[in-house]
Amino acid sequence: MHPLLNIAQEAAKAAGKSIRYHLERFDAVEIQQKGRNDFVSQVDFEAEQRIIQTIRKYHPDHAILAEETGRHKTNSKFEWIIDPLDGTTNFLHQFPHFAVSIAVTENGKLQHAAIYDPVKDEMFSASRGEGAWLNQTRIRVSEQKELENSLMATGFPYYQFDYADEYLAGFKRFMTETAGIRRAGSAALDLAYVACGRVDGYWEYNLKPWDIAAGALIVQEAGGLVTDFGGGENYLASGNILATNPKLYKHMAQIIGQTAPKNRKN
Ligand code: IPD
Ligand code: CA
Ligand code: CA
Predict the structure, then answer these.
(1) In the chain, what are the domains?
(2) Which of 100, 189, 207, 235 to mutate for ligand 1's pocket (most ligand atoms within 8 Å of CB)?
(3) Which ligand has an atom closest to residue 167 CA?
(4) Does the beta carbon of 154 sit less than 6 angstroms from any atom of ligand 1?
(5) 5-55, pLDDT tens digit by residue?
(6) HSE on the CB side for 70, CA within 13 Å?
(7) Residue nearest to atom 2 of ligand 1 (CA)
(8) Does residue 6 contact residue 12 with C-beta atoms inside 8 Å?
């Protein structure tokens, strides 16, 4: 295993341990509201601290972009993109589906990724060119080619509703043309589940780089396709992401092309 992936996994496990500790003592968790329906707890901050401490132990010079503490800039060509707890709303409801997401870029290109589900003890990981893994097992995207037999994952807006109508138009098409849709509440795990074939495709609008950086590489290394809504590679910047197997890509892209807001930045 590449040393940087090893560090990403060590950091993700340290954060996961802290999240599990607080889940077992949930009554003591302190919650703050960032905005309407946008909450953060001391658990998010503590998990982020654990991750940053682990990275700093080995690479004090690397740059970091982390959800709760922002950008820690350096001159390094390496940057770590961190979501310490993806699925905070689930966590705050003790709905056991959330994950730690860590990606490493080199000169802006995704190179390593780890997504850790501390409840199921599942570590999804990938390094560019080395395939994707769930714990010690190699994973691949599904072989499904019929949209009507596909299980889809998505996430929908819950505090900013500017594109609710366009979103619903797309949602209606997928609802009526697939085998079903899941909104499980963690973008990182949605992508990890595409990578291991538990779902056949995933789309979502308006995400942040830390929600999707690790998952995007894991899907690609599992043989899947990941694009923005224009078919390009701008998903980290636009926050609009489509991930699926190569057989379903055209069908999904067509529905998104017909329904997504026209004024989006892809
Ligand atoms: C959220 C989750 C959710 C997605 C949201 C994200 P958070 O991340 O990934 O599935 O729909 O847009 O913000 O806030 O729980 O880290
Ligand atoms: Ca997130
Ligand atoms: Ca988060």
Answers:
(1) 3-139 (3.30.540.10), 147-264 (3.40.190.80)
(2) 207
(3) 1
(4) no
(5) 999 999 999 999 999 999 999 888 888 887 777 777 899 999 999 999 999
(6) 2
(7) 186
(8) no
